[in-house]
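Run folding on both entries below.
>entry_1
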Amino acid sequence: MKYYEVNFDGLPGPTHLYGGLSDGNLASSSNKDLISNPRLAALQSLEKIKFLAELGFKQAILPPHQRPNYELLKISGFKGSNLEMLKQALEQDPELVKSAFSSSFMWTANAATMTPALDSEDKNTHLTIANLITNFHRSTEAFQTYKIFREVFDETGIKLYPPLPRTVGDEGAANYIRFAEEHGAPGLEFLVYGYSLELNLAEPVNYAARQCLEASMAIVESHQLREENTVLAQQNPEAIDAGVFHNDVISTGNLNFFFCHELAFVNQEEVIEEIKEKYKEVTGSELITKQVLDKEISLEEAVLSYLFNSQIVGDKDSMILLAPIECEENIKIYNYLNRLKEDDANPIKEVYYMDLKQSMLNGGGPACLRLRLVLSEEEIKNTKQEIFYSEALYLKLRKSIETYYPEKLSFSELANQELLDQLDEAYRDLNGIFAGLIF
């Protein structure tokens, strides 16, 4: 049986907005209420998908959730037409309106956590939808994501689980890395948490940790992972306070390569040693690790550039690092990446830079925009085919985005019937392209 890694990218919706709703995400907070460009956000993301697909990597595109979320306004007690509810809510609870418009579902790294059949005791693929309870606007996504994933994977035999109870915070694969010699070989599962309900752990001071240890442990149990192929580690509270709200802002990896900042984890040397030892036990091979020293690139520089939110793809001997253009614009990081690709001690052979500024201004880089799933050939065949990248799908989506997506979206102008009509048209067209996955 052949296995492949498939990138499931989320398409930004036509209500892409700078709401500043994500506490601890410095870009989100600092760019609050800027005028956004939903059309450009979607086109930039679409071009990333096209770029990787044309390099030969398997790509799928997940549809945007329908927005505004009028049900959110209704259950909050607002009445009347959609426009009337929005006008009332803008006066009484503007943050609720931002949540109702939020396009944060586009960052599908937070959608779920998966375990491929190769790593699970029962030899099934497991997929748990994240509950995202730390931020209200994101928690409203969870069951719509579950609904979409049920339809997408209905014929695959994948064991799909609903979000965990709201007592434990689960932020999905943004806190998860899988290491292996190849996608079709057994691997090591690395899960990162920030706080615990039961243990007395060191905690950040300025911002809340998002991933709960007990949530990660629940996933380990339900996905039937074994101790010998699992590592759990705590995020460094200092990193969280520097703006590292998810692990994928400070560490990343692909197959046999682990790339991280030296201040990513509590007891970091012990964590890396455990990963390397268990990796060798599982694969029989050595894991290649590259730690970036704080004197080389500081925590602040890592967060501002989203260096570690770069997307790494390719096989174990020849990898591509797809970085946000902000890394190219920072001469210190640009020079570091040039040295990295020239260093034969690691598998990074090419570095490409991608303009994703609309997403970056809201705190999401290349890796935030995709959920990577290791699936068998049979599972891919039985997945809903309409979402897989093709030139025809690309052209349909590009035309739809250019026709219906607003070029400017301002928070102060959301209660506008012309805008609401435009959004309705956009979603009707997208729903047709995505074969009814939206509604």
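>entry_2
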Amino acid sequence: MSHSTSAGGDPPRIGGTVRALGAVSFLADVSSEMVYAANPALLTRVLGAAPWAVGVIEGIAESTASLLRLYAGWLSDRIGRRKPLTLAGYGLGAVSKPLIGLATGWGGVLVGRFLDRAGKGLRSAPRDALIAESCSPEVRGRAFGLHRGMDTAGAVLGPLIGYAFLSWRPGALRDLYLLAFAPGALAVAVLAIWVRERRRPDKITAPSPPLPSFRGLSSAYRRYLIALAVFSIGNSSDAFLVLRAQDVLSSGVGGAPGDGAVRMSLLLYAAFNVVEAVLGYPAGALSDRVGRRPLLIAGLMVFSLVYLGFALASSPWHVWGLFLLYGAYYTMTGGTQRAYAADLADPERRATDLGAYHFVVGALALPASLIAGFLYGRHAAAPFALGAICAGLTAAMLAWTVGADRRS
């Protein structure tokens, strides 16, 4: 597949494959975000599961996604193909939605969420490689920017569709999951038909499977990972924020069993994604100017305030303000956290060092959500108080022990 320029010397354009992958991501995010904020209500109100079950499900799901990212890229190189793994990943995400909607117990939801997150972990690295290999380096930044923009647009539209559907059909929570299958299946169809993989003249020779290693890490990087581990223990799944929001919103409408609270939580999630989309690029540019560490510290302090606010929240307007502020935290730390890990990694073994980062985040996602589920069942404010404390401690550790930024 060649990357051509126009006769007048204009830079190469973003090709049809990249645009098709953007459409795939848009449709997949519409499907996922249409139901994500409804998951806690389905579990606790429809299926009668305890909060600890939410912790088990989300912990396993998020750990699966994080750890699979370590190996999906390697496997793609090993087989010399990108599209099959990408297709399998989006396919798993699509079929997971009706499986969750038809579940008769929380075990069925666990299977669905596991497949959904396994699909995400499986597709992310091969898909990014597809984007990179389907355009010229001169427009690669624009290509990834287009993909991210389409992804975010889907993340905003999905909850709005969910809100509209439940407003039209109150109580039809299970049907929402069946509806979410449609855009997910369409994403798979677009990928299968319109995405073309670049042919390689030679077979790729992949090294041995990547294994997370802590040997040879710089002292600053080790301290960063320790600080990150402290934070990760208190950084449970966002499902607990949604669950807490629905509880507070329900109390604000007289303790109703859920329709109004679920609809409002979908609007909350849409607003959260809007904040992340609007502030994402400025936050990235700010990290280039002031350094990763100051922005991370500021973001962690915002996280601490948000979690403290959720621990104390008692009114619907509290929840709205906190979710919008949480969007600001995400934009300040989402990419910056990974970029700082790359700054501290040894340039000669950066991929291996970043594997240690992903291992820490993935491995601790499960215990963090298990702890949150246990605490939530005893006092709804407890997991958020723990998160606020852990974030504050991590900010202090970054400020006084990690050391200055190093970029190369």
